[in-house]
Design brief:
Oligomer: homodimer
Mean pLDDT of chain A: 95
CATH superfamily of the largest domain in chain A: FAD/NAD(P)-binding domain
Strand content of chain A: 15-25%
Radius of gyration of chain A: 23 Å
Number of strands of chain A: 20
Number of helices of chain A: 14
Shape of chain A: elongated
CATH class of the largest domain in chain A: Alpha Beta
Amino acid sequence: MSEKPIWGEDYDLVVVGSGFAGLAAAIEAKQAGASVIVLEKMRIPGGNSAISGGLLAVAGSPLQQREGIEDSPELLFKDMMVAGMDLNHPVLARLVAEKSPEILEWTQTFLGVEYSDNLNYLGGHSVARTYATANGTGSGIIKPMLAKCRELEIPVQMKTLLCSLLKDDSGRVEGVEVRRDYLFPNRDSGQLQRIRARRGVVLACGGFSRDVAFRMTQDPRLNEKIDSTNQLGATAEALVLALQAGATPIHLSWIQMGPWASSDEKGWGVGSMFTLLAGFPYGIMVDAKTGKRFVNEGADRRLRTDAMLITDRIPVAIVDSEGVKNATTLESCLKRGVVKAFGSIEELANFNHIPLVPLQETLERYHLSLAHGRDAEFGKPLAADLKPIEHPPFYSIRLLPKVHHCMGGIQINAQAQVIDIADHQPIPGLYAAGEITGGVHGASRLGSTAIVDCLIFGRIAGQNAAADI
Amino acid sequence: MSEKPIWGEDYDLVVVGSGFAGLAAAIEAKQAGASVIVLEKMRIPGGNSAISGGLLAVAGSPLQQREGIEDSPELLFKDMMVAGMDLNHPVLARLVAEKSPEILEWTQTFLGVEYSDNLNYLGGHSVARTYATANGTGSGIIKPMLAKCRELEIPVQMKTLLCSLLKDDSGRVEGVEVRRDYLFPNRDSGQLQRIRARRGVVLACGGFSRDVAFRMTQDPRLNEKIDSTNQLGATAEALVLALQAGATPIHLSWIQMGPWASSDEKGWGVGSMFTLLAGFPYGIMVDAKTGKRFVNEGADRRLRTDAMLITDRIPVAIVDSEGVKNATTLESCLKRGVVKAFGSIEELANFNHIPLVPLQETLERYHLSLAHGRDAEFGKPLAADLKPIEHPPFYSIRLLPKVHHCMGGIQINAQAQVIDIADHQPIPGLYAAGEITGGVHGASRLGSTAIVDCLIFGRIAGQNAAADI
């Protein structure tokens, strides 16, 4: 390390990753007067953020006020801790809950993001508090963020792979070595170049859900046969570099499967949003083998996934025309055959090979629960606007859990500084935000808390790194 | 790294840690003709191994044969995977199960270890399969191992702290930097010295149960108020060095609490063995507040601990004179006041502030379960030799879960080679065994599988490192 590197370029901040966290960091840093570049290894910007569901949990929002729903950051914090089995780092989780109204406002006022006019009641949440982007995906936020980067003249440089974190003699991260014109996944493509980061490097390059070899070290069951909702670039190289640089690994073995993904398409697809916004909250999930429900459709992701993965179970979600009103992706689901529509429950049962009589009994029992306002059998929280599943057309979607989110990653503090494993102090010049970090979500992430997490800590990382001299 | 280190001493193998794994590695290496030194940072050898319960799970043993108990490595493997929530690396877990009879034989024939003449039926195991050393602690194995080291002229050097793992230009671990005359926990004490390891370094220096700062990064609940059964030297320095050298961290957030520890003494004490061998298998555990049982006393450690930690619960185990026949530490428990003896259930209830009538009802229900051969309420497996708790004196022990075992650590393969996080290949010259490794036990370790784990992988590490040129 004693030979001085020759820098090809020079910025105050180098941000690695062009999703929610990375773009938020870059925008904040630039606004604070720092020069900044965003590096993205793939051919297009946005990573998983762009293909995500675009859902934001907000504790205390205008829509909640309109609907008369009482909520508080404390309640969201508690929900996050329950799902996280109390493994969450409380300081980080609390920050997400507290700043969620501010971040919603920032996306609306500063970025001009548009949201649907209704709230969603997602599994594991105590109340309905989830906003959805008007276009039903995270691109509804990523596109305005990219426009803001152009406006602020922040370069977002594609096909650039992080290869090394460079430290000076004092141990401070002073820059990065990258491969430019990198063609994923060819590790030998492109040319090496060094970029100096005078004030800091922000790692905002996501999780490792698509990195089969890495994820199998943490959970040997997640072999190549298990699909993922993530884009192909969700691999572990940058995480490994951070760990090699002394970052503290936390909760790496907590890898979340998404219970709402469909077996009739690859990846996240269009079906996941359908199940999230219609199938689970307004419908029921049954085992096609038995016609019976088997889990609270509103439970947290871990509980639902564990129940769905029991051998030989074939989970199918069923909902009717009343229940699909929030389902932003219904049309594309029908077009691609991921969701099927039927004129009657008989036809639906027949197509899905579900025994009819048990299914009818299941529906009757569920409707009785609705009438009583309490799901005695599985404890699903029943929203006030829930109606019996009896208005054709009826819709079904076949489900299969897929690797969705890495709760674990590198440890940060409330300033988004990366924590050294040896002395539990910040590694000078190194920041991180988003899915590459661990601790916010503990053992299991609540749905719709990832985007707020990414935006909040991305902004914090950008602000603090810009002020880091 | 380009300047050649000056070596103070020179061995084929440097073994760090003088517990089961380290001594097993050293003995095997020396027998294979390698020169070897064992380094121990504390003032006395044996680490946690010496103060452990001395319990070995063996699948297919002479005692099982005598008792007519059918068992197999496959069944032990399955029990380990169930407790481990399938996060175990199957290759490693299977090896422990398969080699358990061989390791028992090795300790008896080669080391001369003496065991009690009866099997123990521990929580989470499908059958009674656990041997206990005749003296009721791990020292019953550590002492013969130390004697073997003297016989083989293996130096076991106390007060020597590992400070660095030294790699040559090719990335091979070629030695260690240590502090000699180190006085735990003073990190500045002693003198630096480098020891060359021509064939390999074996890390066998245990878990981090006593390292509050480190364990809190993984599980923020485990603060300084939570006691541990471990010796004070169970800290994370060597684990950190291994991770800095590129080892793969796995399952670090899975930290096991021991459900059988007593609130009336510090650490592991004498009460843990009493609860393990008498209180849980032959008695019941009630909440002193209610007089009622609340969990299967034979469940795995995680389930019992979770149930015991519910706010305001005061767990007390109760057993009678028939149930304490295997309790090797009964006398010392009584002498130290950790276990109390009473002439009647009334006196026991009175002393422990347990409401008498509910406690009597609990006992009646439990005795009814014994008569029916099935614990319908909590599913405790009822051994054939279980008798009603009705023969005075009656014994009680107050319980409090304490941090006991770190399931997580660095990844090894079946050859005990440490796996690099970047390429998932062995780090040349680096081996590990015992609690510093992760993967064997997954999410939760079954009782009495640690010693077999340590001895088996310690021997493998020693054999393979000795042959590593």
